[in-house]
Amino acid sequence: MDPYSPEGELFEIHNAYHQGQYAKVAEFEPTSFSSEHQLLARVLVLRARIALGQTDEVLADLADESDQPELAAVAAFAQFVAGDTSSASDAVDQLVESSSDHATVQVLCGTILQGMGKSDEALALLSKHEGNLEAVALIVQIHLQQNRTEQALKEVNAAKRWAQDSLLVNLAESWVGLRLGGEKYKQAYYFYEELAQAPATSSTRTLVGQAVAEVHLGRLPEAQAALQQAAEQDADDSFVLANTAVCSIITGKDAQESLSALQSAAPDHALLHDLEEKSSLFDELASNYSAKVTA
User: Fold this and answer.
1) Three-class SS of 51-77
2) Alpha carbon distance 244, 256 (integer Å)
3) How many beta carbons lie within 10 A of that of residue 253, not counting itself?
4) Confidence of residue 165 (pLDDT cuts 50, 70, 90)
5) Is 28 left (phi over 0), alpha (psi -120 to 50) or beta?
6) C-alpha count within 13 angstroms, C-beta hemisphere, residue 56
7) 102: DSSP letter
8) Which has the closest alpha carbon to 100: 73, 133, 119, 125?
9) Which of 37, 29, 28 is nearest to 5 (CA)?
10) What is the widest separation between alpha-carbon atoms in the chain?
11) Which pLDDT belongs to residue 292?
12) Is the dihedral of CA 164, 166, 167, 171 positive or negative?
């Protein structure tokens, strides 16, 4: 039996992780699961702790356990998140060489490779998966980042043929829907709203997803309300701060407070890099023109 299926032992912890309920996942005790699933449960707990900012603690916990590929992949991911890209890159090279058939290695090393701008290598590794829905979801994300929406849609449609009711497939379908537009905006909204407003599944991530769908539907006050709910859960969450800044800009409000908070919480956030790049490009273009004064 698939341990992540509705009847599987890891269904609850797995869904909680992908719903962004990291504090809940971190409270699980891996030894409470059957022996065959304890390692998979521990990987999810460690990944949740990384998401909560506990990278140093995770690396300390894994200092003497690099012999297991799954845990070595978690350690590499923690190093990458902590900014030690050199060590993470070396670890990824070794893991891809020796353990590319492990699902955890595929997902975490694929994430690192994509984060380092090595999309082709990430896709090559992820393509080795055998029924790994998290690998499918990551492939969809990469295709969307590459503006290859049709490829992302093909991945989703293929996964729906064998895992239609999976949370990960529904998440991936919503990501693609937000790119396709039209009625797909509404479908994505309904999916995120159901997760975000139910106490058992609500998190900053699901609330941000609802807010993004609201923005696409032109419902800006509702988007701001969802973001406020998310901020009440975690005011320092980088996803919340980035999307609050974007929503402020769209509505003509001052986004500087959110951007300053984002700079403090996640100085390497993609939005900050994008704004800096566009600001520099604007200054460069503006320098080519001189003001003309007429009497």
Assistant:
1) HCCCHHHHHHHCCCCCCCHHHHHHHHH
2) 10
3) 14
4) confident
5) beta
6) 0
7) S
8) 125
9) 37
10) 85
11) 62
12) negative
- State mean pLDDT over 58-81: 94
For the record, the structure tokens of 24 come out as: 């809940």
One-letter amino acid at 204 equals T
Rounded to an integer, the average pLDDT of 257-262 is 96
Structure-token pair, residue 238? 């980088």
HEC readout, 219-254: CHHHHHHHHHHHHHHCCCCHHHHHHHHHHHHHCCCC
Tokens 């992780």 correspond to: 17
pLDDT score of 295? 53
Q: At what angle do helices 183-197 and 204-216 cross, to 10 degrees?
A: 150
Indicate the residue type of 262: L
**Number of residues that this document lists for the chain:** 295
- Helix 256-265 / helix 238-250 crossing angle, nearest 10 deg: 160
For 30, 237, 283, the CA distances from 231, given in Å and listed in that order, are 30, 8, 33
Contact 201, 168 (CB under 8 A): no
